[in-house]
Amino acid sequence: MGKLLTRLFALFGMTLTCVACYGVGYTEFKPEFSATGRVVDGEGMPIEGIEASIAPNKTTTDENGRFYISGRSPYIYFHDVDGEANGGEFIDQHIELEVEGQQLELGDITLERE
C-alpha cells in the first residue's frame, strides 16, 4: 500500500510540474464596454433605422440617429435594415474601435448612400 501511494503522489507531482512548466491555454479577457454615437448621412442629417451591432448585441438608431450598445468585440457594424424607409439605402460600414475604458462616445458616424 505504501508503494502505491508513493507512486500516485509521484505521478501527481509530475502532472503539476508539466502544468507549471508548459501552462494552460491562454484566452485574453476583454471587459465589456458601452458605445454611444449618432449615425448621419452625408449632409449631417440623422438616420433612423440603422442597425448597430457589437457581436452578439444589436440595436437600432432612434429618430435622432442615436444609438447605445454594449459588448466586448473591438468592431462595430452599421447596417441599413429598413432600406428605403429611412430615405434611401445606405452602404454598410464597420469600424475598429480603440477601446480605452468602459464608455466610448463615437460622435457622428457618416454613412454614404448606395
Q: What would the keywords be for this entry?
A:
4-stranded antiparallel sheet; 18% helix; 3-stranded mixed sheet; 1 helix; alpha+beta; Immunoglobulin-like
Helix content: 10-25%
The total of beta strands comes to: 7
Question: What is the top-level CATH class of the domain at 33-110?
Answer: Mainly Beta
CATH H-level superfamily title of the domain at 33-110? Immunoglobulins
Q: Which strand order does the major sheet show?
A: 3-2-5-6
Mean of all residue-level pLDDT scores: 83
Q: What is the CATH topology classification name of the domain at 33-110? A: Immunoglobulin-like
Q: What does this protein look like?
A:
The protein has a domain at 33-110: Sandwich (Immunoglobulin-like), CATH 2.60.40. Helices cover 18% and strands 36% of the residues. It contains 1 helix and 7 strands; from the N terminus they run H-E-E-E-E-E-E-E. A hairpin with a 2-residue loop joins strand 2 and strand 3 (57-60). The longest helix is centred in the first third of the chain and has 21 residues, at 2-22. The model has no long low-confidence stretch (mean pLDDT 83).
Write the layout of secondary structure elements.
Layout: H1 2-22, E1 33-40, E2 50-54, E3 57-60, E4 66-71, E5 75-80, E6 93-96, E7 103-110
Parallel strand pairs: 1-7
Antiparallel strand pairs: 1-4, 2-3, 2-5, 5-6
